[in-house]
Amino acid sequence: MSDSAKIPVIVFFAPTATGKTALTLELFGSGSLFDFKNKAEILSCDSQAVYKYFDIGTAKPTPEERAAVPYHLVDFADPAIQFGLGEFMEEADRLCGEIWSRKNVPVLCGGTGFYARNFILGAPTTPESDEKIRVHIKEKLAELGKESLFAELKIVDPLSARKININDEYRICRALEVFYTSGKPLSSYALPDVPRSQYEFLTIILNRDKDDLYRRIDLRVEKMFEEGLAEEIEKLKSMGYAKDTPAMKAIGYSEFFIDGLSVDQVKEKIKNDSHHYAKKQYTFMRGIPGALTVDADDKDRVARLVGDFISSV
């Protein structure tokens, strides 16, 4: 029986094009045949679907899909503002509490493994913030820009720099703050190896054969272009969003800003980048305590796991 003090959370993790959205609708949507339909709300664990207006390239759930089951953290953030791990953790924690207060189960679903892993395990235990150092770093950011601070981070903590996007100002500043507060790089602090105590997790990693996954990714990219991805890029440009806009750094958008590529070459570049990203995303979820790896097409097993978990809380 579940600890009543803990919030139950189901985590579905898999790279893009695995079939997560269809699965969650089949399990929890208004048309579900399962006893637990309408008993869950989806928390998108996608670092790009969180942005407004960026629709086709992020493969967001359609309005019809979002009407069948409540979605959160989709179309949530302004594309010009960096929405990183810190913002995701804060919002996801808040939403889990609200969803559970409605007697629904939060379902974290997405392919951003860095977000999912940190949500389950929590951030490394690092020194408490030093206000003077934090203010100094923010002043440097305002004066010199993120590129200068990122270059500084690559010198003092190259391992962290390799994991942080140059547009993620929050994480760049935090990594520098940790270094200058403790004299030790952020990368030297170990990630917790047990799930956070305020939650009870059912973590399911949906697996697909590599060739099958790459085929599905390629089909999705083709569909994106058929639905007007190139036209969406032009529309976003007309709205004032440019190459340096945080949301434009995503796969499916950044490739359009590579000089000299034809539309067909952009399409192939998106496919290849998506293949590499899918492989990378699985690595973030290795070793998660209690995580179950299930074939993405084994819906019966997933449904049994979900049913047993929900009935226990």
Please tell me how large the radius of gyration is: 20 Å
Distance between the termini: 7 Å
Helix content: 40-55%
**Could you describe the largest sheet, including whether it forms a barrel?**
6 strands, parallel
SSE order in H/E notation? EHEHEHEHHHHHEHHHEH
Strand order of the largest sheet: 3-2-4-1-5-6
- The total strand number stands at 6
Number of helices: 12
Overall pLDDT: 93
- Parts with pLDDT < 50 across at least 5 consecutive residues: none
Structural class: alpha/beta
> What would you call the shape?
globular
Strand content of the residues, in percent?
A: 5-15%
Give a written overview of the molecule.
With 313 residues, this protein is α/β, with parallel strands linked by helices. The protein contains twelve helices and six strands. It has helices at residues 20-28, 63-68, 85-101, 113-121, 131-144, 146-156, 158-163, 169-182, 210-226, 229-238, 263-284, 299-311, and strands at 7-13, 40-44, 71-72, 105-110, 199-207, 292-295. A six-stranded parallel β-sheet has the order 3-2-4-1-5-6, with helices on both faces. Helix 2 (63-68) links the parallel strand 2 (40-44) and strand 3 (71-72). Helix 4 runs parallel beside helix 11, helix 6 packs across helix 8 (169-182) and helix 9 (210-226) packs across helix 11 (263-284). It is globular, with a radius of gyration of 20 Å. The N and C termini lie close together (7 Å).
